[in-house]
Every structure is written in structure tokens, then in C-alpha cells.
Amino acid sequence: MHPLSRIFIPLAALIIVSACNPSTTPPSTSAPTQDSPTEYRWMPASDAQKFLAIEEQLQGFSRSMREIHYRYNELYFAAQDQNWPYADYQLEHLVESLEQGMARRPERATHSTNFIKNDVPPLQEAIDQKNPELFAERFQAFTTACNTCHAMEDHPFIHINPPTVRFSAVGRSSE
What we know:
single chain; 175 residues
């Protein structure tokens, strides 16, 4: 008998026995139907508790701030590369993330709304003008506004500085 046969024959027998055993049917991969309720392992039973659990999964303003941090960094380097369409895209999504954060945490809306109303348009203007010098000036003011907002929200320990490290491989546009 071949030496590997001592391993493969018992293994093959185990597989055959397991496959034939009706108590070990594999889990269904088909979509749930009306007659087969979906199992949500982490969801509570009541609808009210489900909504609270979903809200907890979405988290609050800190989740938005992580997204905003990414957009802020990308925005900065997009302007450094003079990739103005990408800079415009990042500023748009930065604002969108801030708005989503306000929806989850309305108590943050006053300062965030003022930030969007007063501090985003000058930066948008620099992007629209495709002016690197104006962008640098306005980005500094934008960063100061971030820090002012953090202080007004009782988070002065979150002090933002212009990025020094690029996280993305996105660079100058070929347009």
C-alpha cells in the first residue's frame, strides 16, 4: 500500500460519511423568501431596539470625522497636484460627510452648518479658479476654521494641521 493511502482513504471516508449524514446539511446560500425569515444574529427582536442597534453601528460624529479626515487629506494633495476636478470632488464629499454627521448628531449642527456656510465657499472659489496660491491661503483659513469648530464643540484637543503624508495614490489628472 502506498504511504499516502493511509491518509487519503480515511479522509475520503470521513468526507463521504459527512456528506451523507442528513444532520450536517450545509447552510443555504439562497436569498430569504417570505416564508423563510432572515436571521440577524446581532439584531434585537423589537423594531425600536433594531433601530437603536443600527444607529449604534452607524456611530455618531466621530465616524463622519474619520471620513472628513480622509477627504481633507485628499483635498490638500489634489490642490498640490493641481488636480482641480479631484479637489472639487473631495470638498463636495467632505461637506456630504459633515451633513451626514449632523443628521446622526443634530446637536452638532449649529457649528457645522456655520462651517459649511462660511468656510467652504472661499475654498470652493479657490478650486473653481484653479489658483494654487489662493488655495494655499484659503486652505489655511479652512484649517483654522476646523480647529475653531473643534474648540466650540468642546474638543480643542483635536487640533488639525495641514497634511504632510499622502495616503492615496491619486495624483495629477491627465486632463
